[in-house]
Amino acid sequence: MRSERTGEGIRAAAAADVPAVRAVTDAAYRPYIERIGVVPAPMEADHAADVAAGKVFVAREPAAGRVVGLVVIEARADHLFLDSIAVHPDAHGRGVGRRLLQFVDARARALGLEEIRLYTNAMMWENQEIYPRYGYEVGERRVEGPYDRIHYRKRLV
Hints:
Elements: E1 10-12, H1 18-29, H2 32-36, H3 47-52, E2 56-60, E3 67-75, E4 80-87, H4 96-110, E5 115-121, H5 125-133, E6 137-144, E7 147-155
Parallel strand pairs: 4-5
Antiparallel strand pairs: 1-2, 2-3, 3-4, 5-7, 6-7
């Protein structure tokens, strides 16, 4: 039996999961459109290509078996890049995000990577409260196209 620490209920997404990946991503990021004034980048991602490339991992709701959260990650030479994390609003408060972040840590360690990097939009202030609680530190703030992003990093020891 796998513990929450190693990613209980989290598995690599399959092609059949693409509609659920799109639905969860859209539900999670849609509330930010008005606040940031632009469609968040994860909503415009090529979900089918990311799933086919093995970048997407989904968290399922144990009882119903539906996808309630996901991460999009990419191993790079010196770090694991957390491109997107999304939890369906209906699943907030159930520890899905925590389990996904723990999975990302475990995945980086399994790949022999000692650092995780991510960014969030500066207008997504909720994330600026969450990430430091999980060991992420601000690296820098950069404007990239229409996005004002705060870059975070976490060293795994």
